[in-house]
Write a structure and sequence with these properties.
The protein has 5 helices and no strands. It is an all-alpha fold. It has one domain. The longest helix is centred in the N-terminal third of the chain and has 32 residues.
Length: 127
């Protein structure tokens, strides 16, 4: 019965086994690459909209909140439909998540410029 209790000597083996798990490593890399660029955006976007476009706080929060929620919801729905129809294996899904996270992190500045341009047109069309 004492053989089932883990010891400190088992820790390096457990870490080595976790580090060799491709799916876990792809998912961890994906999470990190998604959170890094998004954290700053969602934190400071309302204040940026307030200062650059002279929007009131409630409008800036509404634009940034709804935009983020709608895009996330659309991504979840499209991903669910894709997984239901194609039925990919777990390794493919994990690799796809990591790949899109890398593309997202590399190409993040360009879409931001496009979003700012679209927002500029939207704000000035309302005034």
């Amino acid at each position: 019965m004492t053989a089932d209790i883990p010891t400190y000597a088992d820790f390096p083996k457990a870490v080595k086994r976790l580090l060799r798990n491709d799916i876990l490593m792809f998912r961890t890399a994906s999470s990190v690459l998604h959170i890094l660029p998004i954290a700053g955006l969602y934190t400071f976007l309302p204040k940026y909209l307030e200062s650059q476009f002279r929007l009131p706080a409630h409008s800036a929060n509404m634009i940034s909140g709804l935009g983020g929620i709608l895009v996330m919801g659309l991504g979840i729905i499209v991903s669910g439909i894709f997984i239901l129809r194609v039925k990919p294996n777990a390794r493919f899904v994990a690799a796809w998540i990591a790949f899109t996270a890398v593309i997202y992190a590399i190409g993040y500045p360009f879409p931001r410029k496009l979003r700012v341009a679209m927002l500029t047109v939207y704000v000035y069309s309302r005034t």
